[in-house]
Amino acid sequence: MTISVDLKKRLGSFTLEATFAGSGALTALFGQSGSGKTSLVNLIAGLTKPDQGRIVVGDTVLVDTTKRIFLPPHKRRIGYVFQDARLFPHLTVSQNLRYGRWFAPKVERYADIDGVVELLGIGHLLQRRPDALSGGEKQRVAIGRALIASPRLMLMDEPLAALDDARKAEILPYIERLRDETKIPIIYVSHSVAEVARLANDVVILSGGRVLSHGLAADVLARHDLLPASEKAEAGALIQLVVAEQEPPYGLTVLRSKGGEWRLPRIEAATGTKVRVRVRARDVMLATEKPSGISALNVLEGVVAGIDTGDGPDVLVTLVCGDDRLFSRITRRSLETMALRTGQRLYLVIKAVSFEGGAAAFRHPAAG
Q: What is the pTM of this model?
């Protein structure tokens, strides 16, 4: 199901103008605080009205100011998950979940409560009250409540922002399952490159109330010039690899693409599974000759496709390896010492341990 947004809204001295279409399972609204992400989500939810514009989900027109169409929030059938879970403290998890069913007409209810409970792994929590849940458990219940309302669209406004790293790691796989195993389109708000790279099919970058870029995640996130300064260290590339084999004695997985062979910390996936790998530019070393006798397990051959010198002490080098486009962030001194130039053939060196924590491999969104 597709979502199409074309609207304008003035909020005091701030003007939001957004035009984009999302055709994938999860569209991420990405940008720094104050860029207009939450304001845009509230417009889609119907909590505020645009000054002009049109919002369409599938075949349903939610807003069309030229035709004076404004579907009220309770008729939009949108599941909204906030930063904080907003569960009813006096109700059990089971009662909180079932509360969501009241918002869907009987003839339009498709969500199976047992299926949602299994999807989110919350069966053992059903008799607890919210004060007995961890932050990650509360968010999973909040997602479940929204799903049981049988929504035509899910809005998730930075649902991991209030969680620590451990709780984020706990809940991310469930959001991936929601993306891959349901047919519900998701609008996901975030200011984290790591989250967006892991989850999004499509990305919309917002800044100052304007859409700077939108399209497939791999294409948009490759625009390092559009990333907020706070996320520059996480800049890199998204590439697709295929699981080739496991190396149990070493706890590694071998993956392949036309660009070469990779070894990463073990990925629990069957041979032939497509995975998406985020390779940060700061983790890619360059060599003019094929290195030997080194500890790094990933050495690929590539060609320099571009060099962005910028204004600072570092340089961003774009390289093509087979069908993959990778990036390396090096110092200006290294650029001059190595005499790098466009078209030059180089070797890329990436340590396997670089993929622990901040950069990793994830199930590809298109995978079944």
A: 0.87
pLDDT band at 231 (very low <50, low <70, confident <90, very high): confident
- Half-sphere exposure for 19 (CA within 13 Å, toward CB): 3
Note the CATH number of domain 3-233: 3.40.50.300
State the Cα–Cα distance between residues 350 and 207, nearest whole angstrom. 32
Q: Nearest 5 degrees, angle CA 280-CA 285-CA 289?
A: 145
CATH of 237-363, one of 1.10.287.70, 2.40.50.100, 1.10.3720.10, 3.40.390.10: 2.40.50.100
Whether the Cβ atoms of residue 32 and residue 201 lie closer than 8 Å to each other? no
- Asked if 177 and 116 count as a contact pair (C-beta separation under 8 A), the reply is no
Measured distance CA(174)–CA(55) in Å, rounded? 28
Domain with CATH 2.40.50.100 in the chain: 237-363
Residue 359 predicted with pLDDT over 80: no
Q: Per residue, what are the HEC states of 272-339?
A: CCEEEEEEEHHHCEEECCCCCCCCCCEEEEEEEEEEECCCCCEEEEEEEECCEEEEEEEEHHHHHHHC
Q: Residue 209: which pLDDT band, with cuts at 50, 70 and 90?
A: very high
**Beta strands at 274-280 and 361-363: parallel, antiparallel or unpaired:** antiparallel
Q: Where are the alpha helices (DSSP H) in 182-265?
A: 193-199, 217-220
The 10 Å CB-count burial string (b at 16+, else e) for 39-66 is bbbbbbbbeeebeebbbbbeeeebbbbe
Token pair listed for 16? 């939001």
**Residue 138: how many CA atoms within 13 Å on its side-chain side?**
20
pLDDT at 105 over 80: no
- Helix 165-181 vs helix 135-148: angle between axes, to the nearest 10 degrees? 20
Question: How sure is the predictor about 367, in pLDDT bands with cuts at 50, 70 and 90?
Answer: very low
SS3 call for 207: strand
Give the DSSP H/E element, type plus range, for residue 226: none
